[in-house]
């Protein structure tokens, strides 16, 4: 068929009822079209077995074994996840490159009477569109950075702006990382998975409106920002959020309560700072953590580690400051007021 995903934007208006990824679970876990379900025609073990026979024995024997496996797995899917689909159901099926796996499964579904289509080029078509969107062209968006030292509740404020209709790009949410060595939020997506999430989020944005993006480095945890986005962020004007060190320390201790409650994890994270801060200072910080002095620890971390690094990073880029937002405290009322002020400023751009 002609590729219905001629652009990433068409993902938002796909005419299909279900997108089915028939690749093996490990392939699906690395990256997949957003919203797709995984109904593998060969599981990870079966795929490896067929591949080995193909290379070491005979392509014919590999195809024969693979066909039997595909038929058994297709039957399992038809009797299981697809059992409630009616005659009007329209799925889109894809594999790695639109080859034997997707066409074999689609052929069986067509025999039942379902109007199934195969994505031409398979996952590789999707991946090509993601790469084109993120790396081959300048981004058509007016980026505005939400800047401020650690503990100024930038992520919280960004989410409040979004909830009030502001256009935002939540990089930390997409990368599943809070942007510092203390920032892991479970397992991060693969680089390809991060880029798929990012490209999909960008495709849903309105280029005529400014996009608020939290100021980040070019790397969020273990994931790298695409060069075009990073270049746009480096040239973008910023809205700066300010708060006192004491207020930020109190907020940070509360925001990272999940981390400070795990002493072993806290020790591991502090150990990562030894090359930058030395053993004596890290031992003092570790003692604060062990005695539960988390506000003092947060204040020390910001004063000696995060604030100097932020200032050094800012000095490299001559960002225009559109607005200074001063938080007198870190209360919910103050954060909501900050978000509303930022929305008002964005609406003037």
Automatic annotation (TrEMBL):
Domain of life: Bacteria
SMART domains in the cross-refs: RHOD (SM00450)
Stored Pfam families: AAA_SelU, Rhodanese
Keywords: Selenium
Keyword set includes Phosphoprotein: no
Name recorded for this polypeptide: tRNA 2-selenouridine synthase
Stored InterPro entries: AAA_SelU (IPR058840), Rhodanese-like_dom (IPR001763), Rhodanese-like_dom_sf (IPR036873), SelU (IPR017582), Thiosulphate_STrfase_CS (IPR001307)
A GO molecular-function descriptor: tRNA 2-selenouridine synthase activity
Residue ranges of domain Rhodanese in the record: 13-131
Source organism: Celeribacter baekdonensis B30
GO biological process: tRNA wobble uridine modification
């Amino acid at each position: 068929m002609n590729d219905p995903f001629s652009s990433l934007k068409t993902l938002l208006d796909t005419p299909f009822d279900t997108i089915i990824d028939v690749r093996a679970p490990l392939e699906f876990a690395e990256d997949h079209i957003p919203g797709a379900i995984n109904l593998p025609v060969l599981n990870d073990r079966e795929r490896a077995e067929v591949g080995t026979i193909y290379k070491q024995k005979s392509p014919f024997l590999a195809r024969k074994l693979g066909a039997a496996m595909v038929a058994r797995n297709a039957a399992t899917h038809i009797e299981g996840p697809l059992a409630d689909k009616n005659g009007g159901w329209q799925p889109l099926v894809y594999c790695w490159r639109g080859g034997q796996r997707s066409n074999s499964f689609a052929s069986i579904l067509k025999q039942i009477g379902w109007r199934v289509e195969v994505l031409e080029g398979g996952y590789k078509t999707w991946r090509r569109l993601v790469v084109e969107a993120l790396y081959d062209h300048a981004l058509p968006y007016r980026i505005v950075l939400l800047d401020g030292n650690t503990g100024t509740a930038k992520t919280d404020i960004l989410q409040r702006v979004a909830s009030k209709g502001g256009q935002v790009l939540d990089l930390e949410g997409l990368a599943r990382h809070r942007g510092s060595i203390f920032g892991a939020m479970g397992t991060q997506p693969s680089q390809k998975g991060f880029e798929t999430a990012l490209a999909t989020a960008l495709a849903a944005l309105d280029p005529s409106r400014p996009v608020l993006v939290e100021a980040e480095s070019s790397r969020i945890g273990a994931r790298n920002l695409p060069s075009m986005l990073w270049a746009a962020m480096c040239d973008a004007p910023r809205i700066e959020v300010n708060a006192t060190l004491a207020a930020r320390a109190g907020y940070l201790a509360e925001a990272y309560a999940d981390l400070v409650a795990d002493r072993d994890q806290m020790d591991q994270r502090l150990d990562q700072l030894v090359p930058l801060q030395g053993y004596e200072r890290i031992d003092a910080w570790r003692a604060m953590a062990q005695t539960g002095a988390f506000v003092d620890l947060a204040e020390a971390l910001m004063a000696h580690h995060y604030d100097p690094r932020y200032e050094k990073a800012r000095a490299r880029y001559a960002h225009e400051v559109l607005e200074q937002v001063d938080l007198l405290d870190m209360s919910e009322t103050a954060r909501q007021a900050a978000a509303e002020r930022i929305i008002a400023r964005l609406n003037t751009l």
